[in-house]
Structures are given as C-alpha cells and as structure tokens.
C-alpha cells in the first residue's frame, strides 16, 4: 500500500473516482446535453496541467499498482492559479451555461479555500473497497502534509445528505463551520468543515 503523488497516466483510473466524489454536482455543472460526458472531460483534464482536476493537485491510494482511492488538495494560491484554466476548459466544452453553473456552485455552495487552510476535495474510494479505512488513511496523510506545510487546518465541503462521509469527517475531528443552503432543487445543502491541525 502507498499514497503517492498522482501522475497523468492515472487518468483512466482516477476520473471515475473524482466523478464519484460528487456526481450530482458534476452532472449539474457539466451537462451532457451541452458537452462531452463528464468522465471523459475529467479524464482529459486530469492528464493536463491547467485545471483544478489536474493530476498536479491529487494524490492516489495504490495497492499492488492498482489505484483504489483519490484525494485532491489546494491552498488559496494553487486554487486561484487554476481559475483561468478552469474557465477555458469549461467554456470550450460546455459553453457559457457551464461557466454560469460552475460560478454559481463555487459562489454559493463550495467556496475558495480560506487562508491558512489546506482544502481537501475529490475524496473518493473505489466502490468495492469502501468501508476499509482508505479514506481515513488518505486524510491522515494530507493532515501530515498540512502540518509540514505550516497550515493551521484542513478544510472541506460535504453534501449534507452524504451522511457516511459526514460521520467519518466528524470522527476525524472536523467541525461544521458553515452551512451553505442550496440554490436549486438538484443540489444538496453543503457543509463547510475544518479540522484544527495543532490541537
């Protein structure tokens, strides 16, 4: 078992995992009616370096060469550096509707990382390997990296109805800081959570 920095060659295994971390949101923002299938889009962008979906921002959980989990991370600077790349990729594939949907999601439900926080995203484990502590191991790995990097906390957003993930995060010391109400009937309310790295 190892947790390592992702590489572009991991795209085919990681794209479905990233999608599984928030399928309702991905389907809403990247509508198949206006562009490619979401997993195809994620596959392409993971292998590149310009967007928040890039391998550059992810780690993978691997056993015997098989990728079983993924986790993404950003600070304020690295997240901001992907803004133009995100916009170009979304507009090219999904047009202005995709840009609008993406901006609404980030402004209303899942906001940019706060200063001093290492923000976690795209936390996912392959369906046939869930319930074995893989997500917790990836989060603990990122907590160690966060401490090494001088961050004060880990942070993340979780859909309110994703009770399994919410329970895990609470068990690991995350606390709800803010509840962001959904702005439509498709997306769930989201909870912004932080975990103090120095308690």
From TrEMBL:
Pfam families, per database record: Acetyltransf_1
Domain of life: Bacteria
Domain N-acetyltransferase span(s) in chain numbering: 1-198
Signal peptide extent: none
Protein name (record): GNAT family N-acetyltransferase
One MF term in the entry's GO annotations: acyltransferase activity, transferring groups other than amino-acyl groups
Keywords of this entry: Acyltransferase, Transferase
Record organism: Zhongshania marina
PANTHER family: AMINOALKYLPHOSPHONATE N-ACETYLTRANSFERASE-RELATED, AMINOALKYLPHOSPHONATE N-ACETYLTRANSFERASE-RELATED-RELATED
């Amino acid at each position: 078992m190892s947790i390592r920095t992702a590489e572009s060659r991991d795209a085919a295994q990681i794209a479905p995992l990233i999608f599984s971390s928030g399928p309702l949101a991905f389907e809403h923002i990247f509508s198949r009616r206006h562009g490619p299938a979401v997993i195809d889009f994620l596959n392409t962008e993971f292998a590149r370096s310009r967007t928040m979906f890039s391998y550059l921002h992810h780690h993978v959980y691997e056993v015997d060469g098989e990728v079983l989990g993924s986790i993404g991370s950003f600070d304020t600077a690295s997240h901001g550096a992907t803004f133009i790349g995100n916009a170009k990729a979304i507009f090219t594939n999904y047009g202005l509707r995709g840009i609008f949907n993406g901006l609404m999601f980030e402004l209303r439900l899942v906001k940019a990382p706060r200063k001093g926080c290492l923000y976690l995203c795209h936390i996912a484990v392959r369906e046939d390997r869930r319930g074995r502590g893989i997500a917790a191991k990836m989060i603990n790995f990122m907590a160690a990296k966060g401490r090494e990097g001088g961050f004060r906390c880990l942070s993340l957003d979780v859909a309110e109805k994703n009770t399994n993930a919410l329970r895990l995060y609470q068990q690991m010391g995350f606390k709800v800081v803010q509840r962001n109400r959904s702005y439509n009937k498709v997306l769930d309310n989201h909870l912004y959570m932080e975990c103090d790295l120095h308690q």
